[in-house]
């Protein structure tokens, strides 16, 4: 039935592609009136917003509008038509379907708090479903109220096809979720400047959102999808059928249609043992670990259902989604997060202008956005954070200026690995590059850029390897009459490799190393090189004095052994050191901008599309390399390769370039013909020429496709088979020509009985964290135990393998892995070990990696079984870690390099929980107690190697239970599930009494401070008694106490200790003013102080925010500033056993403490002017800015003798009930009053404020 004019008057339209210059509602009315030939007065515009499309320059606009008098154009519409193109500038598009993302308002960038996406439900309209019933369609609360009451919020509608009646769609919920993710990606959701995301989801929209979040969590760490997930902060879920819904009436409507399976997935049976049950389990874990906030709204009125006779919603009333389903049983346990609405299922989101339900929902929306209940001025949103941030300077707990004696740390075995892995050219292929006149002309030039682009798999990297290594490149570019020093420097990006292989840090380290090596081999540049090493970026520390001091000492085996052990650790730290980008860039600039000697550098950079970052960023870096100032004697030119992405085209489209696929036809013909002739009997050579021509035609220049199809054809000749030309051509034409389609084709040919192994193997490869996890035997064994539900089952499988005697043989593992991989993996030898026969498994090509990490990969491989599968590669790695790898590795750990190789693998358990939302409870609980204890002792050896002295004392007591084991590995979902099954699992006698110490793993180089603190907070929140570890609070106040003589602490441990102390105070506020030992070397141990005397920055803010006196006296009559100058600085200054990195970081931290104390009115009482001047000089020698300290304390020091001595602060005055300290001196920000109190000891409300401080600092750090 056609749409009537009355319908058009009640229809809200969307107008998109509006020219960017259109800036007002009146301008929109004029545009529509002119295009549709109607009076402007008949057009009512309600909103005008900027398009979300990131590539529009300038961006177009989007409006919502209605017609008071329908235009004739609409009356002439076809039945069902919902979109029209207007005849106006830039051809705006009018529609009534609202599909895709529709922004409803604009927010100024500096006031932009979050984006809110509203997702409608089943058989609903993206806009209309949020409007109240009735004839008045001029109001919609998400558009007209939410942006007003939630300042800084941009509201967006998401529209998708959820029609039931007459639908021919076969899409399922997984397709809807993938489509939703694609829309967010396409509209800038993964950009660096994108704002946090919150959601409003109704009915099916909530299921789509949950599925999407689970898929985003399962994506790779460095993917755009993971960036989207980190933006997601929470949602309000309206009537979401988490545990199914009444849908028998819907089945009547869709019976016999393809969409019936979607409705089946929403059944109550699905919530018991099907899709919904698994989705809820995974989602609840992901949202918990992601610290998202969700509110669950349920209906309390019955809804009319579909009547098969009238074909309308006039049937008897029923509860469509009951409260248990709408809240997933949270109504029984989490009352603050559940809210009833006295409406039926459809009307629960249809709020009118004065609807009493609007206020509570807006309140929840503000909470999800992180806003308070009070009225908020968007101008103050940033100011609140800034006032707190100004208390301390930005603390980055790592050295930003490493000593220049780490120059040799530029080297890393991973830097050149990608070049080694790239296949050499076949025979005489690629010869055409030296016959291509534009390229040889560029080689003869002194500068310029040459861009080699091409399709994926066209052979760009192989060509770049030839150009970089072939002597003809040097011959063409070298000028014998010129005395210029010519240097070639190359780097091959590898997105599948380690961080150093795909970042600018790796590129600059690699080319700097090559340039310096070349300069050192040229006599004409030695003097320049000497001057280069005098610059700050290159300066090398003189170690001759320390070396000579050891030469005159008698040998001492224990002493020298310790020194050698320390030296070995030092080298390991240097090898793993991360050079700051700024320093690398400055070092490179020193060479590129020098004016002492003539140097010509040719950069060869491969696969810029595999750079782990925005393409625009690496494009700007290439321009930095290419553009030299006139005063420089260094000339540069660049040859780089990449896919022809838009960003590269816009930057380098005007440079000399070529597309590889335009030149490879003869190479592919030569490659195919040669292989076929060499592999087949002479009697089979007949069809070779015809087959080669056909491959060339279908390959379209993609070498990789040609090599894959050639293997298919060669397999047809195996055994006694002699296929006819017709059979070969049929096979050739059955294979898709697009690589992604071809990979799917390969997967579909793998027998169903092997699909699980295929899924497990490919997941293991892409989730590998170190080279050992790519070894053939490891992948073979781990794939075979991947489906083991329990530890005994995995052990039984391993025992069978051992009994078959395949430990030293590679035949069966190789045959199995290649069969499971279906041709998508390849085997290399001797890549990561000294043994050239040691096999390593890798994905065949970058395009295979891109195929495997797609969000629907699991669906493609496992089919229907994907819905029942939540395990991924991290889960399988963790199973192998517990089953055999920890036992094997810990036996061999007697050097730091072995330990460092194992450390990344220890994260798989936590990453499995974070990416799947589920725990390994069944598997881990099946591990025998004695195995847990044995593994625990071995894990503590890791901390002993890291030099944490506490663990020498407790190594056999820390991990003696499954709970402690999970605590060490940060398995918060396992702990949650254990508490669900046994409420006293954290307080029972069987549980360890040192869980906090275990949770923190103090001394572990990979501490994951934030995650470990979350684990500590979890066990404290669930009843663990921190008083069992009473010494821990005292020790965490001062990192020098925990600082091991043998191995200085990694600097990020300071931050962890600081935040842990504040966490302990949150759970035990009484400790805020308890006496603690102040001097570890005081034999009588009578000099006591208060926590404020030893506090680190976050702890200091917590204490001062809870009313602690900034001038509290210790037992020696010293204020915190006195202790800072006379004790803390002096102790660090006088100890020679601390590393320079630790020393500078610690000084940076206590400088922050000084600023915080001064800002809260802190003064000194005992320390003299000379003491403070000495401290300032010490700060300055460490390269720290003292501008914030000198103007305040120097005048005070000069005036001290003229001032009356302050009265001692009494115990009563030092109590938390003391009045607020005096106002800070001029130039210092006042303390935030929201975090100060003078009305008694800390309360629950004040503790929550302390948590707010730490949450801010954790994000700000």
TrEMBL record:
Keyword terms: Repeat
Q: Where is the Nephrocystin 3-like N-terminal domain?
A: 429-526
Q: Which residues form a coiled coil?
A: none
Q: Is Metal-binding one of the keywords? A: no
- Could you tell me the superkingdom of the organism this chain comes from? Eukaryota
Q: Pfam family of this protein, just one?
A: NPHP3_N
Provide the residue span(s) of the region labelled Disordered: 1197-1251
Which SUPFAM superfamilies has this protein been placed in?
alpha/beta-Hydrolases, P-loop containing nucleoside triphosphate hydrolases
Alphabetized InterPro entries for the sequence: AB_hydrolase_fold (IPR029058), NPHP3-like_N (IPR056884), P-loop_NTPase (IPR027417)
Biased amino acid composition, Pro residues:
1218-1233
* Annotated protein name in UniProt: Nephrocystin 3-like N-terminal domain-containing protein
Which organism's genome codes for this protein? Answer: Chaetomium globosum (strain ATCC 6205 / CBS 148.51 / DSM 1962 / NBRC 6347 / NRRL 1970)
